Amino acid sequence: MRPFNGIKPQDILVLLKLVAIGDAKWRHSDLSEALGLSQGEISFSLDRCRTAGLLDSVKKRVMKAALFEFLVHGLKYVFPVKPGPLTRGMPTAHSAAPLAGKIVSSADDLYVWPSAMGKLRGQAIEPLIDNVPQAAAKDHLLYELLALVDAIRAGRVREQALAAHE
User: Fold this and answer.
1) What is the pLDDT of residues 29-73, one digit of tens each?
2) CA-to-CA distance for 44 and 16, rounded, in angstroms?
3) How far is 90 from 134, CA to CA, in rounded Å?
């Protein structure tokens, strides 16, 4: 068994992808291709998540209650983020679905992942890892989950509460 060195940002991406996949069968290569991570990174990530109690013992089923608790109560402390300068990118947090229609914000209060693929201008929110925009562009449900995670990481109390509810 490898020593446990804590959760890494890519582990959150992997767990959210597994939630988005649901009960469908998957292989390491499927996750690798969808997330832009090597199969080795996927394997290490699954091991860390199992050790942390976020995956079952065979590393196939997300322990959703544990993941929810970690996302709502710990994520903003482990992977904090502050809005940065204005840039072009993909909407995230309260600026993306599913929160975009529930929170009224001004053009100055939009959050984006800096990305050449983006068409919106807003304050930069550093994604958990660099390839989050590419992975989100391939999977609408994963995109929504990542946006909710960013609402918890970067949002005010109201945005965090709405994201947790979603």
Assistant:
1) 999 999 999 999 999 999 999 999 999 988 889 999 999 999 999
2) 16
3) 10
CA distances, 126 to each of 61, 77, 151, 160 (Å): 28, 15, 12, 17
Query: In the predicted model, what is the mean pLDDT of residues 132-138?
Result: 95
| Cα(45)–Cα(147) distance, integer angstroms | 21
Query: Does residue 81 come out as left (phi exceeding 0), alpha (psi in the -120 to 50 range) or beta?
Result: beta
Residues in Cβ contact with 153 at an 8 Å cutoff, skipping those fewer than 6 apart: 75, 76, 79, 80, 81, 93, 125
The answer, yes or no, to whether the previous bond of 3 is cis (omega within 30 of 0) is no
Q: How far apart are CA 61 and CA 122, in angstroms?
A: 36
SS3 state of residue 71: helix
DSSP state of 62: B
Residue 19 contacts residue 54 (beta carbons within 8 Å): no
CB-CB contact of 42 with 60 (8 Å) = no
Q: Are 120 and 153 in contact (CB under 8 A)?
A: no
